[in-house]
Amino acid sequence: MTLSGAIDRQSSTPYYQQLVEALEHRLTGGQIPQGERLPSENELCKEFGLSRATVRQALQVLESQGLVTRVTNRGVFATQPPSADEGWTIQQPQGFLENALSHQNTSVTTQVLRHEPTILPAFVCQQLKVPENTAGYELVRLRTLNGVPALYSINYSPPDLVPVIAAAHDVLDGQASLSQALAAAGYSLGGAHRSVRAVAPSPQIAAALDIKPTTPTLHIRSTSWTPTGQHFDVYDTWVRSDIVPLEVNVDATGSS
After folding, report:
1. I need a labelling partner for 215 at 20 to 30 A (CA). Which of 26, 47, 182, 256 fits?
2. pTM of the prediction?
């Protein structure tokens, strides 16, 4: 495949695999943001000069990799988080990001880049179990360790929490914990599912983290719920693992 993304007709790599690689680059590089619809099969056929069968095969591969999800009568969308019964279990309230930061013994600062009510992305609505195009709250933050950018995160909250977060001035000033503010409002953590994969950040995120857009980061997506099962927080975080090593505590008590 050429640098422009066109299909290399002389390559021994199958056309469908070349298309998979081209779309993977757009997905992991942020050209197709999470929750956004991919071009239709017809549009991809025209852009790459491929048959519909080849395009459909490539989309099926991406779907099997968990990079896209197909919504009946609507199209194919970027990223569907894995189900909550996959992966390992962390049997404590803190997640591995909190563990990693707390064990650094360094100065952690938080800069709030943006916060505002917004229409939630489709994948967030799905995870929060609210209708599509629901208005919620978006909080975008950059965390540094000893002055070095380390984590870029976006938290999405459902409508009920909009007034809570809007009134949490210390959180919005980067001086307090969002988790603690939510717990104080009655949204304590009962459980969460977090998926991790290596991705190339978007140019905007790469600039914020002071890295090249081609530098891999660890992308963490989390959905949290209360002890009663109410989903109340979805976040996307891009981590410089050269700065923040992630730590996981494993409790094998009761394992067979």
Report:
1. 47
2. 0.63
